[in-house]
Structure formats: structure tokens, C-alpha cells
Specification:
Blueprint (H helix, E strand, L loop, with lengths): L1 H22 L9 E6 L14 E5 L4 E7 L11 E6 L5 E9 L5 E4 L10 E9 L13 E6 L3
Antiparallel strand pairs: 1-2, 3-7, 4-5, 4-8, 5-7, 6-7
Amino acid sequence: VQSAGSAEQQAKAAQAEAEAYQSYTELIAPSDGVILAQGAQPGELVGAGFPVFTIQATDGHWARFYMTETSLAGLKNGDRVKLKLIATGQELEGKIQSIAAAPDFAVKKATQTAGETDVRSFGVKVELPQLPEAAAIGMTLQWNGKTEG
């Protein structure tokens, strides 16, 4: 009886382990969206952190601009900015959601000339509350500056 009880405990432990492994096979997206790319095929073994899918979230629209540090003067989170959808020529308004705390890259490297410095670029994320019907993910927006007021 004791031997059978031991075997039952081992079987229950094996089942719990199998259920834990099975829970690792479920992928859950962080938000609703459109799949842009697939990095792995069904049945393929991937490591933790491997990007299986790349999605574009559909719960909010935004654009990222890379602005030189000299262009950032006077801009802050919450500022409203004017944009233009290149494909249609439509004027849009956006709101600065965030400005990177650190530069991403240098857009101009200093040369050997005395007094020159690098000009660095900062990422600026702009929320787009309303997009026209003609706008599609990945279309080009032109930055036209801060709105008045």
C-alpha cells in the first residue's frame, strides 16, 4: 500500500510538471493589434525572450520622430504639434507623449575643427488622437512644429 501511495505521488508530480511545461506553450499578446512579422513557426523550439511575433497595437496611434537637440529647445511633454500626412497632404495635430531622457545617436559628428561638437538626436513620441481614414500603419508624417497656444 505504501509503495502504491509513493507511485501515485510520483505520478501526480509528473503530471504537475507536464502541466507547468504546457503553460509555457501559450503566447499572450500585451494588447490587441495587427501581426507585422512572425519570427518562429509552429512546433519550433524558441528560447525565453525570443520575439515570436511583432505586432502593431491598435489601441492607440503614435509616431516617433528623431529631433536634434537644438530642435528640442522649448518642447515638453503635453505640447501640441502640427504634422502633415505626406501621402494625402492632410494636416494633423498630435501631442508629445514623451521625449527620450538620453540621446539615441549623433546626427552630426564633430570634425577636427576647433570648437565643433557632436549634434545628438533624441526620440520624441507623439500621440495621434485622430487619424484620417486614408492613413495606414507606417505612412510618413512630416513634423511642422509646435501649435500656438
